[in-house]
Design goal:
Layout: H1 2-21, H2 23-47, E1 53-54, E2 57-58, H3 59-79, H4 81-92, H5 96-100, H6 106-112, H7 120-136, H8 143-168, H9 170-173, H10 180-188, H11 196-201, H12 204-207, H13 211-224, H14 229-255
Antiparallel strand pairs: 1-2
Helix pairs in contact: 2-3, 2-7, 3-7, 3-8, 3-13, 8-10, 8-13, 8-14, 13-14
Length: 262
Amino acid sequence: MTRYLRLCKVLWQINIKAMRAYRGHTYMMFFTTLGWSLIAFGAMYFVTYRVDKVFGLSRAEILMITSVYGLIMGIMHTLFTANFERFSQLVNRGELYGILIKPVSAQFLVSVLRIHPLSLMRLCIGIAFILLLISQFSISITLTNVMLAIPLLFIGAYMLYCVWFICNMIVVWFHTVDNMMSFMIQASNIGRYPPEMLFATRNVWAFLLVPLTLFSAVPARVMMGTSTLTEIVILCVCALAFHAGSQFLWKRALRSYVSGGV
C-alpha cells in the first residue's frame, strides 16, 4: 500500500510539472472547468427555483444530490477521465504491453497514470455549493451524518469507476471504438437525479440505470439524514458487484488482448 501511495505522489508531481510546462492549455482548462462546474450547479438551482417537491423529494434534497454528484465527478475527472480517454490509444498502438510488464498493477497504471489536478476545482465548487444549501435551506447536518456520508461518497465514486472500467474493456475486443469515454460521461449524468425519477417511468429498462443514480443520491441523503439502511446496503452491494465484474473482465481482456496494429 505504501508503495502505491509513493507512486501516486510521484505521478502527481509529474502531472503538476506538465501542467506548468503547458501554461496556455492549463489556463484554457481552468476556465473551461470553472465554467462547466458553475453551469452544472447553476442550471439545477434555477430550474428548481419555483419547485417545492420533485418525485416526493424537497428542492433542498434535489440540489444536495446535484452537489454530491459534482464532488464525485470531480474525483473522477481528476484521477480517471484522462486515462480512460487514452485507453483506446494504449490498446490500438500496442502501448499497453509496456504497462503490463511493469512491476506494479497494470490496472492501477492504466487508471491513474495521467492526473488532471485542475479538476479538483469541481470539488471546491461542490463543497461551496453544499455550504450554500445548508445556509439557504437551514439544513440540519450532524457530524455523525457527515462522517458516515464521506466513506459512502468514496464507495459511490469507486462504483462509478468500476462501471467506467467495465465499459472501457469493450475497446480490447473492438479496436475501432474510440469514443467510449464520451458515452460514459453522458451516461453518468443520470447521477444528477434521484432514483425516484426512474421508478416513476415504470419502464423495466430504466430500472437497469438505477445504480447510476445511487452513487450520488445515497451519500447526499445520508448527509441530510433522510436515507434508509436499505439504500446504503444496495449501494455497497452494487459497488462489490461492479468491482467483481471489472476484475473478471480485466483478466479476460488481458487473455485475448492483441494490439490493433498486429
